[in-house]
Write a structure and sequence with these properties.
Elements: E1 13-19, H1 24-38, E2 45-51, H2 56-59, E3 69-74, E4 77-83, H3 88-99, H4 112-121
Parallel strand pairs: 1-2
Antiparallel strand pairs: 1-3, 3-4
Helix pairs in contact: 1-3
Length: about 130
């Protein structure tokens, strides 16, 4: 008996917030981010808080100018990369759109450095 497409495991959705500890907006946003990601764990969402200074080796050549900056990827495919308003509604709307299968959610077009970071953030890359 074969499995239907609905029962096949989906590639987890990685939602990473690139922030800095010194940024007050980032510190305030962290609880919002953690809650939104936790609320979607059953749907395959995996969150990652990335301090761009403490984890500069992970971030690589990406220059994050504004906070919070989100990277949303499914496998190696970048669905969103860019600065967002630090509101729960913005984050939950982006996550839901990705879960609904939207292929491109806006933000900046991902360059090679962003695609490389997305690959490094995948659970099997750790």
């Amino acid at each position: 008996m074969s499995e239907s497409a609905d029962t096949l495991p989906r590639t987890p959705l990685t939602v990473a917030c690139l922030c800095a500890e010194w940024c007050g907006t980032c510190r305030d946003y962290r609880a919002t981010f953690d809650q939104a990601v936790q609320g979607q764990r059953d749907a395959g969402v995996q969150g990652r808080w990335v301090d761009v200074e403490d984890e500069s080796d992970l971030v690589g050549a990406i220059d994050v100018d504004n906070f919070p900056t989100l990277l949303i990827a499914r496998g190696g495919e970048v669905l969103f990369f860019g600065t967002v308003t630090p509101h729960a509604s913005t984050l939950t709307r982006l996550i839901q759109a990705a879960l609904d299968g939207q292929a491109r959610l806006g933000g900046e077009p991902p360059d090679a450095d962003v695609r490389s970071l997305a690959a490094r953030l995948q659970p099997d890359a750790r």
